[in-house]
Structures are given as C-alpha cells and as structure tokens.
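Re-running the complex after MR caught last week's input typo. The corrected sequence lines follow. Everything else is unchanged.
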Amino acid sequence: MMRPLRDLRPVFVVGVGMHRYQFSSDTPYITMGLTALRAALSDAGLEWPAVESAYIGTTGIGMAAGRVMFRHIGSTGLAVTQVENASASGSSAFAMACLEVAAGRVDVSLAIGVDKYGDQKRAVQKEGIDRLSDTANIPLVKYALVADAMGREYGLTPEQMALVAVKNHNNGAKNPFAQFQKPRTLEQVLNSPRIAGHLTALQCCPRGEGAAAAIVASDDAIKRLGLARQRAIRVLSSTLRSERPQVGHEAPSITLARDVAMQTYDEAGITADELDVVELHDAFSIEEILYTEAFGLCPRGSGGRFVAEGGTAIGGRCAVNTSGGLIAQGHPLGPTGIGQIHEITRQLRGENGDRQQPNAKTGMAHMIGLGSIAIAHVLRRE
Amino acid sequence: MEGRCAVKLEKPDLYRVAGDRLELLASRCGRCSRLSFPKARYGCPACGAEPDASMEEVLDGRARLLSFATLHAQLAPGLQVPLVVGEVEIADGIVEEVVLGRDEQHLRPGMPVQARPVPVGRNGEQQIACRFMPLEAVS
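Corrected-run output:
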C-alpha cells in the first residue's frame, strides 16, 4: 500500500538557485553546479554543512559527478547519491530528497541537477530488437505523428502549435537563466527550418548544459536553523509512474502523463482548477498542447485554442512554462526538472518579477523521461 | 528465384518475402494469448511469460494507415530525408511506426497499406527493406 507524501512529515522547498542553461561550452560542470548550489544556499540562508544529503541528477557527466563537485565546496561527509532517469533525472533527484526529509531520515536535503551534453547513449539501442522504422524510438517523430492525427481529429493547426513556441520564447526572453532569450514572432517560428511534420526548429527544445539546485527541509529544520518560514514552499505530492502497453490509438506517453497528473492531484488533495502555474515537458510545442489537455487544464481537443486565447499565458487561467519551458529556458536533461522547481518556487513566493503569475498559490512541475516515465510534484504556498 | 534468395533482408527478425509482399513476423503468447510485434524476445510484454511460451505468428503485412509526417532533418544515422513515416495498425490494437516513402502524395489516413519489399543499399550491398505502400497503388 503506497503512502502519499502528504501523509508523511511536511517537506518544504527553502532555497533554489540556477546556473544559466547554455549551448555546449568549455565551462566545467563543477563551475555550473556550484553556481547553482551557492545560489540555493544563499536563497535559503543556509550554510553548506547544514545539508545532510544530496541527490545529483545528471545524464552525461559520468560516474560520481556529485562527490567530485562537492570536494570544492567542502567535504562535509554528507550522503551523496547520483540519479539518472533521462530527462526526468533532476525531477527524480528532487523526489528522492523530498522523500528522505518526509520520511524523517534527514532534516535538510539537496537536489541538484547538472549536465554537460554527453554521448546520448540510450539503453534502447542495446535492446537488440529491430523496429520497422529507424526513428521508432525518437520522441520527436512520435509527437510529429500525434500532431498530424490531432490536426485531423480536432482541427489543431500548425499556427496553434507555433503559438506555444512564441509564448515560451517570449517568456524565456525575460528569464536570465534561459538558454534562448530572444522574443519570437509567429512568422519567425513558422518560418524556421522544418524538422518533422509541422514542427519547426523553433518549436523544438535546444541541446545544452547548465545547473539547477533546490534545497528541501522539514519544519523542524526551518525552526532550528532560523530559515524564513514565509518563503518556504510546501511540497504536497511526489508521483512517479512508467508507461503501460498502448491501448487504442493514444500514444502511451500521453496516457501516462494524464495518469500521473490525476494521481498527483489526488495525492496532493487538489483539482486541476486550483493550479495557477505549471511547468511541463514541452520538448516539442505539440507536447504542451497535449499535456494541458491531459492535465485537465482545458477540455480534450481544445489545447490549441486554449493557448491561442491566452489561457496558458502569464495572467491567463493557468500560466504554463513561465520560465520559457524546455523550448526556451532549455533542456540540459539533468537540471531540467529542478529548473522547473526553481521557477514554481519563485512564482509561489511572488518573487518572479515581470514573469509573475498574479496571486499564484499552487503549482505543478511535470516531466517525462525517455522510456517513458512521468513524474509530477505539486507545490503550494501555505 | 536464386537471385532473390541471394539478397539479404535488412531486418530479417521482422519480416519475410512472400512474392511481391512482405509478411511480418509476430509472436503470440501461449499463456495470455496476446500478440506481440516485434516477436517477444525476452518475455511477453503483457504477462511476462518466458519467450519459449510464445509461438511465431505470421501477419499478412496489410495495415491501416493512422497518421503520417514527413521528416526533414536527419534524425537517425543514415536516414535519407525527406522521408515519410507513419503509424499503422498492423493487427488489432498493434500500432507500429513504419516507413512509407519519399512524399505524402496519395496518402490519406484510414487507407489500407501493404508491406512491400524495396531494394536499398546498405554498407555497399543491396538489401531488402520494408516499405508500406497504399494497397490500391500497387497492381
């Protein structure tokens, strides 16, 4: 019998920090990781020795990335565990840190994602099973095909898909941590090189590197260490599941995304209507439309209209990917899910500057990892 | 006939030549009766039964086209673009991504398509690849 996070000891995000996501460079991963970590410690008002355990989400650096990095900020003897879960590595590291605090084993834990663009080796390439199409395991192709089907079934237009990218690039333009910081017009998005189906280059997330950190703590630690209780953001739920065999014609990753969202709402004790901000896996623009529908933010088949009418814009019904999402903030894999926590925490504190969603109280971070797995966290300002 | 036998199949685990068609090689679980394509190599994806419990089942290579899209970027090594790929239902409830050809002309969702042998060059030799073509377009 599974016990949801909400039934365990309350856990709070007390500090967040980032190193800007960027194209591949000669910046050492240690520089990026420690930049994010120091920013998170400063944000929390914590000293490094107070952190009792660390989970490091990474895919491309290699074994023992955390231990090597932490040597350079002080070897305090804390527990260090590396977490790889493809695109959801950072989200999964965050889940582990939350669960450890919630279980009462430690009072303060760190989730940090840091990555360099690696060799991208995937286990599916070692499965030893051929497929009829050589692109059968490439998500971009799957989503281009879904977009084709949605166009015919629901009237989704290439312009509506492109509007997701326009919104996210324009959000990224105001985000100092975003890899892409240029506002884009609908024409620019539509006229960028076509990649697959109606998906153009500016509707696809970039490859890159960067870092993001989130420190979580118990109520006891907040009191004992004198942290700012009013800035602490409660983590209400932590939900992770993997794909089941396809039923009907819906891609299993979409079914999975919906199932995880519904489960995490149940665990958090909320409904979709209560969400003010959502960061989700928009590796490709069509995904944001699919997931806003799957999460119940708008009716099925209306995701294209929802974005066109401003429902997902800052100030809209539920602001989606105010960071710029994977499309503009970037998707360096290891950090991505923790970058979402960074954005939502700042939103729920009311500290997000000109990307602030008015009166944001409840938010959700939702990632998909290759394979597929889906993971979601609901956060709330109490 | 001798010439045909000399040409290798690009993916012999997935299909075999039957005249001007390709037949697809699936397997059916002896425990839960579920059909798997590709064949269950390590165990039944539905119930987990040992692969020895599965029997090969040959599909006629006829399918229903569900969706398609043209790839414009080289997303996999050796992929020659533009290339049209699609999702087809090769048996009840089994949806697979397949290669359709070079352009979308003559394609429409819901139409019947057939797996056909097409010669392709691979590593300096000719092999038989699988391409799905509209059923009515082939005599």
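None of the earlier attempt is carried over here. The mean pLDDT of chain A is 97. DSSP finds twelve helices and twelve strands in chain A.
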